[in-house]
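Regression test attached.
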Amino acid sequence: MITLYDFELSGNCYKLRLLMSILKLRYDIVPVDFYPGRQHKADWFLRLNPFGQLPVLKDDDLVLSDSGAILAYLARKYDETGLWFPDDPAVTAEVLRWHAVADDITSTASAARLALGFFYDFDVPKAQAGAHRIFRLMDEHLWFGEREGRDWLCSPAHPTTADIACFPYVMLSEEGGIGRQDYPALRRWTDRVRRIPGFTVMSGIFPAGQALEIA
Amino acid sequence: MTLSVSDPTWYPIASSEDLPFRHVYAGQLLGRELAVWRADDGNVNVWENRCLHRGVRLSIGINEGGELKCQYHGWRYANRSAGCTYIPAHPADAPARRIQNRTYPVREAYGLIWSAANDEQAFRPFPGAEGHDWFALRPMPVNAAPEDVLAALAGLAPDDQPADLLPGLAVRFGGTYYFVQPVDACRAVIRGLLAEPPAEPVATLRHYNETLTKLRDRLERAARKKPAPEPLQPAFDKVSADLATMPDIAIPKGNTITVVVKRKWTSADGVIGFELAARTGHLPTFQPGAHIDIHLPNGMTRQYSITNGPGELMSYIIGVKAESASKGGSKVLVETVREGDLLSISEPRNNFPLRRDATRTVLIAGGIGITPLLSMARFLDKSSLPYELHYFTRAGETVAFRADLEALHGKVTFHTGVPRDEIGATIASALGQWSMAQHVYVCGPGPMLETVRETAAAQGWPEEAIHFEYFKNDKVIDNSSAFDVELARSAMTLHVPSGKTIMEVMRDAGLTVPSSCEQGACGTCLTTVIEGDVDHQDVYLNNSEKASNRCMMTCVSRAKSARLVLDI
């Protein structure tokens, strides 16, 4: 039985809801009042995750934390197709590289969002500038990917956990005052992510229209 | 050079490749945010990036191929005209407000999308544009003043080949053209074009990208040391009252449009298709279920439903039944109007609005009644909403618009030559039991409409869920009564004798009365009743509207009481 310790407005928690929705997994949710209750710093939560961070996932007796690590775990354990976290050393390195970028997006775009929407004391201009720096790199990577026939962040011809890890805080960047107008290829990639079968929404992340079916 | 918000110059705002189908691109020009999208017919729309409803950005909307839908509140705007085709909170049976989003001029050429802040200048190709197979570089956004970006680009030219400055913030050297898109006073996008596609496209793109990245970094370092210029402040006109106010129900605006008969063909035995095209540009936005009045060469006016799908505004396609019993209207169209002829039509009007919040929509057509329902089916189809279309034709009659119907993805069932006594059962099973948020739309001959209305009512369908359009009133009009009408607003009392309609008597008294079908089918002459007992003989109102005694059609309805007081 899978249990997700979840805060609905957290992009990091949403990453797991998204993958579990795509993989059609059943799970329970234990809501954690991250804001304003700060329950992720409560004693009972720190006993689950001493790092005091959401999300936490319990699979029977196994307790896991860190959204990127949990994405890898869920894909390895429950994705029978093996596509979401492919078993190839070079691709694993690629996926983990983008998991690290996802953490950089969290520490910039998500930090700006926490400051503007949740009254956290962060340096907003610095966080915004950092997010723009990453988005520029992603846009360039994705733009050349389109020219080279690659639709996703990593080289396989299908999405991986890297796309899920990077997606939420790109989509929520406007809440941190970070526009995506300068990143057209990044915006097209978010359309593609939102068209993955099993895609689910969260507050601030809405579905994309249907792709044109070429008959 | 100082940037001006009213600069009429055409600038590139996107690459053609930035606009895949079913995507909405976010752009900006001279401080104005733009929502740019390519419709399924290839047409590119450049609109102000705001939904007129609450100002939510349209660049987060859904490109449905023929319409752009605002995700927050569900408003829809049509390809080409940007006319609003659906307002969710609007009562379903109210007429559409004539709302149009703000648009900007657009031209797709040389691998780029071009636009301008206003329509003051015609689009002109840049010098040397013709005769090349242009290849667009990766656009490079720069946080620096557009003039500084242009100067730096000119500085890229080799010493022995000085840059050639072109109008519109453009520069050329070697075979490369650079255009600076003035996003705002402190932001720009560099858009490069090569005169021919290179032998190794990706390597070439990477090479230019590297050069422009270095240029960008240098420009941004310099810009950070200067005080940032004030962003441009474009002023937006208010939406005109004409566009923003509710029009009176179904009263023709009186505006006519001249159209060319582009194509005339036999769609089925006895059904002639007409394609009516605008002489220039596109025709007005219409809603699914809408019709136009055609002013015929013999002076008659007849209504025909538009069969088009969303955003198809280059021409309207109608179907005309060429029956011998015709009173003359359709006969004239079928027999005398030829391809190339000009016709005068009204703006589209809608007495048969389609809800788009239904969980299940059932469309039932009989014969030529397919025309409004074909349009509805196309709208539902494009939006991937669930619907079932049942098309009844008599034995021997052939199915009109068959290829168009077969191209739909929804459930389309052809019922051909169903015996009269089995039609009821077929309709009953097509409808099923009603449940919440199901709607049925029916158009066809009178007896069939009655069968659908009765069957639906018997299976629990409430009146609000049954939507119908008669294309004519088959009832025998009893005009034997005589009574007085008091016209409250005109302060006039008229006597209506037997053998004359209220409308005729009002016209004899010098009043201008809007009318269209003059047989109680179209709703044009709908009038509010203040006092009196109405003898309804129309097929436009539903039973509860008739029972309310609050409204009537002056073309066929009469009074049961000695006196009627009308709000005219």
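Expected vs. actual: identical. Chain B is about 20% helix and 30% strand.
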